[in-house]
Amino acid sequence: MDIRWDRVFLARHGQTEWNLQRRRQGQLDSPLTAGGVEQAHRHAAHLRPHAVDAIFASPLGRARATADIIGGHLGLPVVAIDELAEVHHGSFAGLTDEEIDARDPDSWRRRSADKYGWSFPDGESYADADVRAGHALARIGGYPARRPLLVSHEMIGRMLRRHLLGLDPDEALAGVQPHDVIYSIDPRG
Q1: 62 marked as part of a ligand binding site
Q2: Is 13 designated active site?
Q3: What pLDDT shows up at residue 175?
Q4: Active site at which residues (predicted)?
Q5: What does pLDDT average to over the chain?
Q6: N or C: which end of the chain has fewer CB within 10 A?
Q7: 132 pLDDT higher than 70
Q8: Is the separation of the CB atoms in 56 and 135 below 8 Å?
Q9: Marked catalytic residue, from 13, 43, 153, 179
Q10: What pLDDT score was predicted for residue 184?
Q11: Number of H helices, E strands in the chain
């Protein structure tokens, strides 16, 4: 990857109703909670002194709403990048882990055997999302930003960090990104 960014900021969308219910959203959506809206406002306050010069977001409503709040504070428009959408959870989208267990009791065992390559039924794998993350970064690299903010999701965020930090898949999959955390990455090392 041709690195020309001084810094890249990665934020996860604010907390949603389905996050509280522990439902897998994937590429479905649920609205931000009042706490999720407040997280977006805090992100903006935190980012203000860091000279963010562009905002890119997943097109999914929860990420776009978070990015719009931040952009409003920073006076920056938001550019939607389709490849920043969350991993597609296929037929498991909208379900809790307990509901998934009732429907397909062996699914988590199969997933733990190959977390990177395993695909959600009728959905995507981390390997698929890894390719999308690379495409997203390449598209964003075509903009003149030096300090972009990317607002996306936890699972695709792992793959974005993988590309930006040169992590192997297992290292990337070990990471988490709570709703109230912003990663500040120097992609040059």
Answers
A1: yes
A2: yes
A3: 92
A4: 13, 86
A5: 96
A6: C
A7: yes
A8: no
A9: 13
A10: 97
A11: 8, 5
pLDDT at site 108? 86
Which domains are assigned to the chain?
Answer: 8-185 (3.40.50.1240)
Chain centre distance of CA 39: 15
| pLDDT score of 139 | 97
Tokens describing residue 60: 């999914």
Q: Is 18 annotated as a binding residue?
A: yes
12 has binding-site annotation: yes
Dihedrals phi, psi of 23, to nearest 5 degrees? -95, 140
Average the pLDDT over 151-177 and give the result: 96
Q: How far apart are CA 129 and CA 71, in angstroms?
A: 26
Residues ≥6 apart with Cβ < 8 Å to 143? 54, 56, 79
Rounded to whole angstroms, the Cα distance separating 107 from 9 reads: 34
Q: Is 15 annotated as a binding residue?
A: yes
* Helices 126-141/154-165 angle, 10° precision: 60
Q: How confident is the model at residue 1 (pLDDT cuts 50, 70, 90)?
A: low
DSSP string, 115-169: TTT-B-TTS-BHHHHHHHHHHHHHHHHTS--SSEEEEE-HHHHHHHHHHHHT--H
| Global confidence as pTM | 0.95
